[in-house]
Specification:
The structure is a homotetramer of 354-residue chains. By secondary structure, chain A is of the alpha+beta class. The first copy, chain A, contains eight helices and 16 strands.
């Protein structure tokens, strides 16, 4: 499994299991001379961390990042940035009940099949805990991107959908509520609903929308490494993601070309933006926006039947402190992956012209 | 732009513009000893080629592939397979009207911005003509995959949706109609609709569903190179694709975890398959299925306004022989990209255990 | 075998066997806007091609390259450059005697072992014929490199060594003799010696020295992708190469640090250049120079004993038209690989600073 | 600078500067199920560490490795192995004298030029301290390689050369003396010489020979990723290395093909081994052996002239605790890099046949 590296020039390699000593990574290729705001990095980690509100898992993990290299006198040096987050609150006993059986719709079964055995103390490498390393690297990428602004927010929870385009929203409200939905009224409904689901010991899915603004023209490496293809892969690599669409997306298939085409203004911008800021895999300078579908997390706090390694039926009971809905905590992860892609493609684009 | 290579071990690099001398590629890493059925390769090319029916572009391109290396006495040798398809019918004059202006929602503008100038004879590298090279490589990948079966079909055209799950369909009917929809009644409606759109000189989008069967357990390289993440990137790299969802996809977000979880049978298979055959980025042995959204192609045979390189407004008229709806011809392209991913991940999976 | 791609951003993938239909490649990542001198490319091919003088193989191969893509109106477009050289004079029967036995110190045996079977019509993929594709790509790289000048020459044939530093030589004399040694007197001795070896039906090794001038400071990607490490790999990937040394090389180990250290001039240049133009894997602006050792080619036109596939002893006779000494024809190959590395590292270096 | 990753499937990414918080790395792609002997890993680290004898630097660094992930119940899990070695004895003040000037033949100048500034507390990323991370990963690779045996030893120090082939040596004597030369008499002379050099405050170069035994047939990925090309790159990436030769190397160029060719035995082995165990870039089952040239380290404890950032001449005095000769401590580094290459190519070779 050498699938733990992301990016070509701005390159992140991560390590770590949910119940190991530490998680972390190596960010290689980050250009030299970036003044790093370490507080901003910790802030993004805090937006992802457990226990931040009543609608997320109540696990307590400080998630404090230690930097080991690549930073000198507050600036990046161009050498790899090594970092780690130690696991302080492993509570293995919470997981002992799953040692010998496979949780439905978890990765337990496939890891056992693929590797021959697994770290049975929780999700191991398949746990979303790994994404904390992505948030660290993404927060650094954001600081490299300068004017480019990346905002993600929750646009759907279960059946509750925010029926507004991103242009109608005030991104400054995203952090004003625990759901991270910038529409206060909808956010309240979503919060209510998540609490209800939690009481039931159940979970529910959601959708996150991400918007990237102030994008220069020309980012993207056709034909295989189109900008939206890499963004799609980045988002689909996040735990529990089931779908990705950008611009007009799945709704766009119903339109006619004459209506879907984005007419030019004389400055090269377009009157509409069904394209989602990308043409032929290359950014055209308009806003990039996309939606990401998250399934309901598999861990339900209910009794369920499953099988053990020998294929015997076993009845068991979901335990532990889990998220009833993953999207509020996934917002900074989406932003981080978007930032990593945009940073990598910014560097790739420097190599194109004589 | 070094974005023209796909895959890590089963690796395709393509070249070629719509109006160049030839398109083609190098397929490296194809294992030695595969008995190649060259007819099957040409058949897939013929399924993609123009002029095959009344509802696709009437351009005439034989699309005959020549193999230059990597095959000896009917078998792959383990050395790179070089191949080319010569462009026989370039009709550049069809495109002369676009030399100095940018077609809305085409890649003309971004290519000029990114590279400083472009091959203005049509789409150049951004033309879907490039995908013929993918079909050649994908057809070889299919022959490596043995029992694994990959079937793609058209499940939506504009508003016309095939409201059946793939289990209700007979894949042997896919090639029975020009739309490549395995439900005869729906196919007829779709064909009618596409003809109407064509008369209007307009275009419409569609959805292709792809199903991969007889998949071994264990394919996928978490955390970044999850199987569905790579499938998503592969599909999003196809011209005109705007979205990808697998398993329960965007609909699944509305479900509760207790209902969404796939309960195990004692043999490790699952009673339901909301997961879409993939858990934690690794195949679990169930069928893999996903949907791909295609936008309406941008070339409409109507008058439209646009701008030239200097940013002056120009009025022009769409010309040429184009597809009113891209999905019927995109079916073999989707299958090819799926085959390339499955072949690459099959090889990667050989390296995992002691 | 996915080992047929070289480079990260300026990326060459090659295909082709000595007795297949054609050899060629895809050069991806070549920046847009380079005015290509196609004659210069063919000239480098002609320097490598058989039959050019009395001391090289008398095979007749025109080695005419056809370009398929990536060039428009005489300039690179930034899209992949596909090219092929058709094999016109295969003379398979010359090789029929080796179908069932393994030539000593050839790759016949290992290819059979690795891939299960092989194209027995000559060297197949292991033939130096493949290097013609490298020369095409390298000739393009040279045109991207502008002021950077790459000169290779023969500095040793068998025991005959050119005991002059490159500073004492006139590179304009390299092409003045068939050996490609810029010292006329030594060249004459070498030519004589190669003719004698040829009469004996034997072969001999040699050394090529390569010098890269006008190198900007800063090329190189420590710690693993140091500039000299990549140059070394590039040279070692050429057929028959057994060794690589740069700067003071193997002789330098005898020196003391106080004598080996290169003292600075006030402009950052150094008074001596034992470093060979590279410090810590990064170019320092001084000339880069290195030596490459080539073994005597294995094909001798003499009787020899060997084994067949079943391990039976067989006596046979070397046939065909082969090079008594490979270095004269290898000079343009060395230059080509050096140019590919310098072009790739020039692009990589653009991504380093904010 | 994304040049800090080595390997395709068995992939090491390292981080860390000589005076940062810690050095370490991520080893990705290590197959699951390997019983790890952690003591053996620490033993290799101890062979590399400072202060181990009178002829190496007297710096005190315990070099204790901490593993963060990828190991469970004593076995590798197939997930990335994250590890770190904290820097305990930084002694920055030893280096304060170099803050504003460039040490001749060090990387100070090129790092400043390439990145715009540098961590001036010693070598930073260009320090050989980084190689401790390679030794950790290489020690794990050795445990994956099973029967394959890798032995490196010092074969030359300055003018003192060990004039014996590796077959004449007893590898069990390598660790019997501080020089790591398996010939006791020669080792004693070398030790004496290194002590003399040290007294002079000077340094001297050396050669390390490495032998790989019990190699399976078939490792190597032509045409660019030939086994010896990757071994060469691996060795050239080690600090202070100036040359690499394998098999007959530079001496072999003087031989005639008829004498250089390795005649077959009926079992496929060869009577001689001028090839060095590799044909056409693929292992042939015979021993692989190669030599690596190390220059005299640049840090001399003498007065010297140099320049500062503004290009002014400055006179200064070499200080600190440095190695008079680098080869004794470089032996485990050479073994580690060889092990990483052999592990990666073992995995790559699993993907070749149907």
């Amino acid at each position: 499994m050498a699938g733990n590296t992301f990016g070509t020039l701005f390159k992140l390699s991560t390590f770590g299991e949910s119940h190991g000593v530490a998680i972390g990574g190596v960010l290689d290729g980050c250009p030299a001379g970036i003044e790093l705001n370490l507080e901003a990095i910790q802030e993004d980690l805090d937006r992802r961390k457990p226990g931040q509100s009543a609608i997320v898992t109540q696990r307590k993990e400080p998630d404090t990042v230690e930097f080991y290299s690549g930073i000198f006198e507050g600036k990046t040096t161009g050498t790899p940035i090594g970092f780690a987050i130690h696991n302080t609150n492993q509570k293995s006993h919470d997981y002992s009940h799953i040692k010998d059986s496979y949780r439905p719709s978890h990765a337990d079964y496939v890891y056992d099949q693929k590797y021959g055995f697994r770290d049975y103390r929780g999700g191991g490498r398949s746990s979303a805990r790994e994404t904390a390393s992505r948030v660290v690297a993404g927060a650094i990428a954001k600081q490299f991107l300068g004017d480019m602004k990346i905002n993600a927010y929750v646009s759907q929870v279960g059946e509750l959908s925010l029926n507004k385009s991103y242009q109608e929203l005030d991104f400054s409200l995203i952090e004003s509520n625990p759901v991270r939905c910038p529409d206060t009224a909808t956010a309240a409904k979503m919060e209510e609903y998540i609490k209800k689901i939690k009481k039931e010991g159940d979970t529910v899915g959601g959708v996150i929308t991400c918007v990237i603004q102030n994008v220069p023209v020309g980012l993207g490496e056709p034909v295989f490494d189109k900008l939206h293809a890499e963004l799609g892969k980045a988002m689909l690599s996040i735990n529990a993601v089931k779908g990705f669409e950008y611009g007009s997306g799945f709704e766009g298939v119903k339109m006619k070309g004459s209506a879907h085409n984005d007419q030019f203004n004389t400055d090269g911008s377009t009157k509409t933006n069904h394209s989602g800021g990308i043409q032929g895999g290359i950014s055209n300078g308009m806003d990039i926006y996309f939606n990401i579908a998250f399934k309901p997390v598999a861990t339900v706090i209910q009794a369920y039947d499953t099988i053990d390694k020998e294929g015997n039926k076993v009845s068991t009971q979901g335990k532990g402190r889990h998220d009833p809905c993953v999207v509020p905590r996934a917002v900074p992860i989406v932003e981080a992956m978007a930032a990593l892609v945009m940073a990598d493609y910014t560097l790739l684009n420097r190599t194109i012209k004589l």
